Amino acid sequence: MGYEAYDRYAAEYDAWFIKNANVLETEAALVARTLENAGKVLSIGCGSGLFEMIMQKRYGISVSCGIEPSVSMAEIAGKRGMEVTIGTAEEVCAPELEGRFDTLLFNGCPCYINDLQKAFDNTSRFLRSGGRAVVIDIPKESSYALLYNLAKTLGTWDHPMLQGVCPPNPYPIEFVAMANWRTTEEKVECLRRSGYSDFRFMQTLTRVPLHSDSSVEEPSEGCDRGSYVAITATFNR
After folding, report:
1. In the UniProt record, does the keyword Methyltransferase occur (predicted)?
2. I need a surface site. Which of 20, 32, 66, 99 has the fewest CB within 10 A?
3. What is the C-alpha separation between 224 and 202, in angstroms, rounded?
């Protein structure tokens, strides 16, 4: 999978979140809840460092190290104070990072990782003994993913089938076209095969996409109704 869209439209990524401020705050609240007592965190697919900046400024949670395949995104994250290693989760080789982290954060990136199993296998080397992974993404079974997959199939948000259904400011179609959403169970199984166990779940964005930006939503336990779901699992080295 290429990352040309993120290199070309890096600024649009942040701009979308700014237009959907309540969605941003809702997702950030979920990330912050999962990073309580997280220790030293490595953000896999950190993108522009937007969420990491929010974690520091609003929640006092430091996430200063990241891995990101898009050079344009990494440059923005660097300007926000992050130390970013360029590379994909599947292939990145950074001996200096091995065994240094208590938590691996995969926030919003699993759907853009081509080989998720290989990514979990490869990045586990960065964890200390007893470390954990926090995997947050849109589940394929959720209302958001169903809507996104329809837009992806149609190739546009401007279609009669989506009138009155999609949010006022939908996610850029360039990013939708690149994504491969997986079910929660698929992600759990990949983690399990990589040596993770003790799975816990939290969710948010429980409203339909049309109304999800109407107010900020607090995260809740479970994975049965949210369009943004966090899986936390412990690595058994």
Report:
1. yes
2. 99
3. 9
